[in-house]
Design brief:
Blueprint (H helix, E strand, L loop, with lengths): L1 H27 L2 E6 L4 H12 L3 E3 L8 H6 L11 H13 L8 E6 L6 H9 L3 E4 L17 H7 L3 H7 L7 H15 L3 E5 L3 H6 L6 E5 L1 H4 E7 L2 E6 L2 E5 L7 H14 L19 E4 L5 E5 L5 H13 L5 E6 L8 H13 L5 E5 L1 H13 L5 E5 L2 H11 L5 E5 L4 H6 L16 H9 L3
Parallel strand pairs: 1-3, 1-4, 2-3, 4-5, 5-6, 11-15, 12-13, 12-15, 13-14
Antiparallel strand pairs: 7-8, 8-9, 10-11
Helix pairs in contact: 1-4, 2-11, 5-8, 12-13, 13-14
């Protein structure tokens, strides 16, 4: 009941903050660049920041129908507790008429968690430039009801593609529904849109834009990709890029979009990315107890992001690899299917030990792994404290452990860090998450 009320109030309340944010945005009048997509947009935002610096303002930690208006109004949620909302409601009208930001460029990270959010944000921001880096199943449970059911196909005798073409609220599959919502950023884009041309769903949505479209593909632009102990190297369009961080191959799209955006804005491009700082939970490397190496990729866990990071880990040449994987959440009707596909990816991995933590991976992924057991050890746990205790008891020293998952994974990492000051570099530092980790024994 409460969840349904929240769902129905989401946009009406968001419109309240958008109204006052629109006033301040109109008074400010920056050039708006939107970085969007299912995965990789935050890293793209940081790549842009490394290039453009203080010439622009960046919507850090704000990418939703609430977060972006809050960012424009200088409203900040620190603890994420409900009590903060009273203050936010009263401050919004005051901030609409406060002095505007001095930067003349606004780099915005924009997500699409539910139907209507793409149009809500795109019609509000009316971006000059859109960078659409990826499209995949994220928050797909919110889009399930838009998919044309097979029953309707059998009743009408018409293929599902007919309904996808002729009714914008009905789609052939959930990926198409998500792509359509992201497509509003293309529809409202004023000048230039850069897209991942290896994703047909993105290419299809370009029919909706009047802006110039620049298509980026691996076949044409990516020459080579290497990841190792010293970091990551890309060769793109005859240029070499080196990063000390571990980055999956798909970051190539973000590098290309970053370069083209900087050039479009008439600014100097630095191919060394000397000021690039990797955002928390995106393959950050930490030293752990007993000489272990921790790779922290705990910011999100979607089918596409998990696949991408597993490919990176496969290419990472070290011995004694362990994988700690959590549930992929909000997948709706495709939950079982995607967790079984995850098992197939893990079967092909070179990890010596696979530790699954969560109800979904314990139910769907584990069952398929033990049915096809190969040269690896696989364990499952439903609670994070159980997974942590297992690690503390079984680590011998020198292991390289990749953490991928969003539910309390950072709490496990906290307990394995050699330098406790590194805790500040982990994801989900807000008060509400600290409270939840304590409740889970972390």
């Amino acid at each position: 009941m409460i969840a349904e009320i929240k769902k129905h109030l989401y946009f009406p309340v968001a419109w309240y903050f958008r109204f006052f944010a629109q006033i301040r945005l109109w008074r400010w009048r920056p050039r708006v660049v939107v970085a969007t997509g299912s995965n990789g947009k935050t890293t793209l935002l940081h790549l842009l920041e490394a290039q453009i610096g203080n010439r622009a303002r960046y919507s850090h930690h704000a990418n939703s129908s609430y977060g972006i208006p809050f960012d424009i109004l200088d409203l900040h949620r620190k603890s994420l507790f409900k009590s903060e909302w009273i203050r936010l409601f009263f401050l919004a009208p005051l901030r609409a008429f406060s002095p505007v930001h001095k930067e003349d460029i606004y780099i915005v990270e924009a997500d699409v968690d539910r139907p209507g959010e793409g149009e809500f944000l795109a019609s509000f921001l009316k971006p000059e430039v859109v960078l659409w880096v990826s499209t995949s199943k994220t928050h797909s449970m919110n889009f399930d009801h838009l998919v044309m059911k097979r029953l309707e196909e059998s009743r009408t005798g018409l293929p599902r593609s007919f309904f996808a073409r002729n009714d914008k609220r009905r789609f052939a599959d959930v990926e198409e529904a998500i792509a359509y919502e992201f497509g509003f950023f293309a529809e409202y884009c004023q000048k230039l849109i850069l897209i991942n041309g290896d994703l047909p769903l993105e290419v299809e949505q370009m029919k909706r834009t009047k802006a110039k479209v620049d298509i980026i593909t691996k076949r044409i632009h990516l020459v080579s990709y290497e990841v190792g102990g010293k970091g990551t190297r890309f060769q793109i369009d005859g240029r070499n890029y080196s990063f000390k961080a571990l980055l999956p191959e798909d970051i190539f799209y973000s590098i290309m979009m970053c370069r083209k955006t900087v050039e479009y804005l008439g600014l100097q491009f630095d191919k060394t990315f000397s000021k690039f700082v990797l955002p928390p939970g995106r393959s950050s490397i930490f030293q752990g107890i007993k000489g272990i190496t921790i790779i922290d990729s705990t910011y999100n866990a979607t089918p596409a992001s998990v696949s991408s990071i597993l490919k990176m880990f496969e290419a990472y040449q070290v011995r004694n690899k362990w994988l700690i994987l959590g549930d992929m959440i909000e997948l709706g009707s495709s939950e079982q299917e995607e967790h079984e596909k995850l098992a197939e990816l893990l079967m092909a991995s070179c990890a010596e030990r696979i530790i699954l933590m969560g109800i979904r991976v314990s139910m769907f992924t584990y069952l398929k792994l033990i049915q096809n057991r190969k040269n690896y050890v696989v364990e499952k746990f439903e609670k994070p404290r159980e997974a942590l205790d297992y690690l503390l008891s079984n680590l011998q020293g020198g292991e390289t452990i990749l953490f991928k998952g969003v539910r309390f994974m950072e709490g496990i990492i906290e307990n394995l860090l050699l330098d406790k000051k590194d805790v500040a570099k982990l994801a989900r530092r807000e008060g509400i998450w600290e409270k939840r980790r304590k409740e889970w024994g972390l």
